[in-house]
TrEMBL record:
<dbReference type="GO" id="GO:0009251">
    <property type="term" value="P:glucan catabolic process"/>
</dbReference>
<feature type="domain" description="GH16">
    <location>
        <begin position="118"/>
        <end position="393"/>
    </location>
</feature>
<dbReference type="GO" id="GO:0004553">
    <property type="term" value="F:hydrolase activity, hydrolyzing O-glycosyl compounds"/>
</dbReference>
<dbReference type="InterPro" id="IPR000757">
    <property type="entry name" value="Beta-glucanase-like"/>
</dbReference>
<feature type="region of interest" description="Disordered">
    <location>
        <begin position="82"/>
        <end position="119"/>
    </location>
</feature>
<dbReference type="InterPro" id="IPR013320">
    <property type="entry name" value="ConA-like_dom_sf"/>
</dbReference>
<feature type="signal peptide">
    <location>
        <begin position="1"/>
        <end position="24"/>
    </location>
</feature>
<keyword id="KW-0732">Signal</keyword>
<dbReference type="InterPro" id="IPR050546">
    <property type="entry name" value="Glycosyl_Hydrlase_16"/>
</dbReference>
<protein>
    <submittedName>
        <fullName>Concanavalin A-like lectin/glucanase domain-containing protein</fullName>
    </submittedName>
</protein>
<dbReference type="Pfam" id="PF26113">
    <property type="entry name" value="GH16_XgeA"/>
</dbReference>
Length: 438
């Protein structure tokens, strides 16, 4: 049943700050509420499929941190029934392209691209567009995962998210994907009033992979609300060997985005101090990026960088650069998108301080990050959104979902309140990937 897990194990992790000392208890009681057969049968399949991985990881430190009642780290592990991770060994700035991905693929020279800002000032950038997803062709070049979700907070418990990811035809037939008349791409979850099992959802992974470059997501809307756990992220082959970069991630009613790295042992942040790191965000996890510890997460200081606040503000742009000197993430709200980005001639040196920056002196990016595929997913409940259902205190989640909904657990709420998931959708203007030609 879980044969596809051999293909690629993809995890996306999130550290969640609790302000409730009952956090550990809440997690444990949530897990206890799951029927033991659900947990056991899943755990069994997962162990059968991934015995070697689990064995080696179990030798390391405990995989769920419940530190001082204030912070927990969760990971989303998923069967990537995808063709991602095509294993090119070419130079550090080339793409391992495969198959049908829409790629501009025309830039082989090193001349600068010239653009013009909205104020008419010409911008010269070494970055060239190598892949874009926009308009009626948005869904070209992605592989739709066609399998139940498999999420976990990498402890001995493995609790799947409450979604079945569906293939492209089913997604379109069931109105889960749509290209709007305005040219935006929509990815929804199923909003049928009540379901007895999982709700249908979307998870897409690019066919092309890159081990350096600049990623730009322009989103109008992201999934939000109690029970939701969406992410936009990249992942290298053979997790965690190839590294993982979470660019947009959060849960429930969060208002501040969190970016996180997950790696093999040996990559870290030099400090937990924002000023020492030269970032505008805050380190809210361990400084050690090792996947078994839950990764190293940095939260944006912008209260409109995630969730309903982001949506209500017209969305915005997330950018991520990956190169041998480090990995940086910026967020720009709609009213403040740099003109070099809108003109298609992005130049990161114009963007000011990133909210997140992991740099090479303490994390050798060349060593820890392989060719990255790019992923959108929306899951429901599962280890994170389910486990923190009764917790409050993270920005935007001043009141717990249990209090807000009056329903004591995530699954019951999500299964019986389809209308409450009307906001659980992505609406995307574009995803663009640029590289500096070698
Ligand atoms: C698809 O879903 C959206 C959001 O619920 C709705 O507004 C729209 O009418 C639906 N389209 C179709 C063809 O059912
Ligand atoms: C890449 O290919 C090489 C040679 O075929 C193989 O040894 C290696 O395991 C592959 N790496 C990944 C990450 O798939
Ligand atoms: C790598 O990315 C950072 C952040 O965008 C940038 O400051 C730096 O110049 C880049 N280095 C190279 C070699 O491209
Ligand atoms: C970073 O890792 C690469 C690949 O393993 C290696 O060639 C390089 O020497 C490392 N750089 C440093 C500064 O350790």
């Amino acid at each position: 049943m879980f044969f596809f897990l051999y293909d690629s194990l993809l995890l996306v992790c999130l550290s969640f700050s609790f302000y409730s000392s009952a956090s550990a208890t809440n997690v444990a009681s949530y897990l206890a509420r799951r029927t033991s057969s659900q947990v056991q049968s899943f755990t069994h399949d997962f162990n059968v499929a991934l015995g070697v991985v689990l064995t080696s990881r179990e030798k390391l430190q405990p995989q769920v941190h419940l530190t001082t009642g204030s912070q927990t780290v969760f990971c989303k592990s998923d069967a990537g029934a995808t063709s991602a991770g095509s294993n090119s060994s070419s130079s550090s700035s080339s793409s391992g392209s495969s198959g049908t991905t829409k790629s501009t693929g025309t830039s082989t020279n090193t001349a600068s691209a010239a653009g013009s800002s909205s104020t008419g000032v010409a911008i010269s950038t070494p970055y060239r567009l190598v892949e874009e997803h926009v308009g009626s062709d948005f869904f070209d070049g992605w592989t739709f995962t066609d399998a139940a979700d498999v999420t976990t907070h990498v402890s001995q418990f493995y609790v799947a998210g409450l979604v079945d990811y569906v293939d492209q035809g089913t997604a379109s037939d069931n109105n889960l994907t749509e290209i709007t008349s305005g040219g935006t791409a929509i990815m929804r979850v199923e909003t049928t009033a009540t379901v007895t099992g999982n709700r249908q959802s979307i998870r897409i992974t690019t066919n092309n992979v890159y081990n350096s470059g600049l990623w730009i997501l322009d989103a109008v809307h992201m999934p939000t609300g109690c029970g939701t756990w969406p992410a936009f992220w990249t992942n290298g082959p053979n997790w965690p060997d190839g590294g993982e970069i979470d660019i947009v991630e959060g849960v429930g009613d969060n208002t501040n985005d969190q970016a996180t790295l997950h790696t093999l042992e040996g990559c870290s942040l030099a400090s937990s101090s924002s000023s020492a790191l030269g970032i505008t965000g805050s380190v809210i996890t361990s400084t050690d990026c090792v996947s078994t510890g839950g990764g190293c997460g940095i939260r944006s200081s912008s209260t409109v960088s995630y969730g309903a606040a982001f949506n209500g503000n017209g969305g915005g742009v997330f950018t991520m650069t990956l190169n041998s000197s480090g990995i940086a993430v910026w967020f720009f709200e709609r009213s403040n998108i740099p003109s070099d980005i809108t003109s298609g001639t992005p130049l990161p040196s114009l963007w000011g301080t990133p909210f997140a920056w992991w740099s090479s002196p303490t994390c050798n990016v060349t060593e820890f990050f392989g060719y990255q595929s790019t992923i959108f997913d929306t899951t429901l409940c599962g280890d994170l959104a389910g486990s923190v259902w009764s917790d409050a205190g993270a920005p935007g989640q001043e009141q717990s979902c249990a209090t807000r909904t009056g329903v004591s657990d995530c699954d019951t709420f999500v299964q019986n309140n389809g209308a409450a998931l009307q906001e659980a959708y992505w609406e995307i203007n574009s995803v663009k990937i640029y590289q500096i030609p070698s």
